[in-house]
Amino acid sequence: MPKGQSKDIQIGVRFKPEDDNQLDRIVGKGESKAQWVREAARLLAHDGVNCDYTVEELDRKKVMFKIWWEDKRMPIEGTGTIMALQMGDGSLKIQIQSQSDDEEPDVYYRFLMPPEAGPWLKKLPKGSKCDFSVVDPSL
After folding, report:
1. CA–CA separation, 87 vs 81, rounded Å?
2. Pairs from 105-109 (Cβ < 8 Å, separation ≥ 24)
3. Per-residue pLDDT tens for 72-119?
4. What is the DSSP string of 78-91?
5. Angle of the 33-45 helix axis to the 17-26 helix axis, nearest 10
6. Which of 1, 18, 37, 49 is within CB 3.0–4.6 Å of 5 for a Cys-Cys bond?
7. How far apart are CA 77 and CA 65, in angstroms?
8. pTM of this prediction?
9. No. of H helices and E strands in the chain?
10. What DSSP letter does each residue of 3-55 carry, written as one string?
């Protein structure tokens, strides 16, 4: 969350030097380790999505979306990249990472797909601008 918006609960995490070095390599430009760890924890704690696609079909694919942005209490649409993680129960943790043209180049947003969003995920025909679409039917 942006600075000053949430300071309710603080959790300390310790890493071995080799794990910290790995974090240094994977944390995105303009993102702190704390932000990266927070997003990773949110993703793992979030309920999984059941859908007709595998991690291999989804992960790092381009997606166009029109979804409800709970934080801002409004619909949002755009394009982004899918990040997918397979869970042991067969569900997927699916997150959309998107950058806004109006923001700094290092600012991006992550949206977690809710469990009911599995059917919203559709593969687009070859030659489309994106590989998949996610459209909330309530919008």
Report:
1. 19
2. 105/30, 106/28, 106/29, 106/30, 106/31, 107/30, 108/28, 109/80
3. 788 988 999 998 988 888 889 898 988 766 656 556 678 888 889 999
4. EEEEEEEEE-TTS-
5. 90
6. 1
7. 5
8. 0.72
9. 3, 6
10. TTT--S--------HHHHHHHHHHSPTT--HHHHHHHHHHHHHSPPB--S--H
